[in-house]
Design a protein that fits this description.
The chain is mainly α and 169 residues long. It is built from five helices and no strands. The protein has one domain. The mean pLDDT is 91.
Length: 169
């Protein structure tokens, strides 16, 4: 089980950690290029708006799993900090299972969106006419990565409960 968790977390680190970081860098370079061509050459590239929007959505969705792994999603712990460690461990497992349940409609909705985009040949409304299936596929990939990370967290939580017997320690 620990090997499965290790593999999932490696995938999360690479695809959900490093890839969005690289995308942020590319977005900065693209915006810099847009600014330089607009103000220095007086001839803008006119791609930063559309591609920048797609990149921001990509950064957000692909980064979901890494953000979960690093416990960086917004959380309110005032109530859980008052609970005993044993109850906290069980509550953590319950919330992980609940998050996994809510992840499935996100995956299904992303998949249906991709199917519709493919069926109708949806394209962006800009001059670039980008086929929307490409930027929308990031929604599905990010959702699946989040699901994988949730599975890893569930495994870790179950192992922790088994090691402590679900009791306080």
């Amino acid at each position: 089980m620990k090997k499965i968790v290790s593999i999932i977390e490696t995938i999360t680190n690479v695809l959900s950690g490093y890839l969005p970081a690289l995308t942020v860098f590319l977005l900065m370079v693209m915006v810099l290029g847009e600014v330089l061509t607009r103000y220095v050459m007086q001839d803008p590239l006119s791609i930063a708006d559309e591609l920048g929007g797609f990149m921001l959505v990509g950064i957000t969705f692909i980064g979901l799993a890494y953000t979960w792994k690093e416990r960086s999603h917004v959380s309110v712990e005032i109530v859980t900090n008052m609970l005993s460690p044993g109850v906290r461990r069980w509550l953590k497992l319950f919330t992980l299972l609940l998050a996994t349940v809510f992840c499935w409609p996100l995956i299904a909705g992303s998949y249906e969106l991709l199917q519709d985009s493919l069926l109708f040949g949806s394209r962006s409304g800009s001059w670039m006419r980008t086929p929307l299936v490409y930027p929308q596929s990031v929604l599905l990939v990010g959702s699946v990565l989040l699901l994988l990370q949730l599975v890893a967290e569930i495994i870790k939580s179950v192992l922790e409960l088994m090691n402590t017997g679900g009791n306080e320690k």
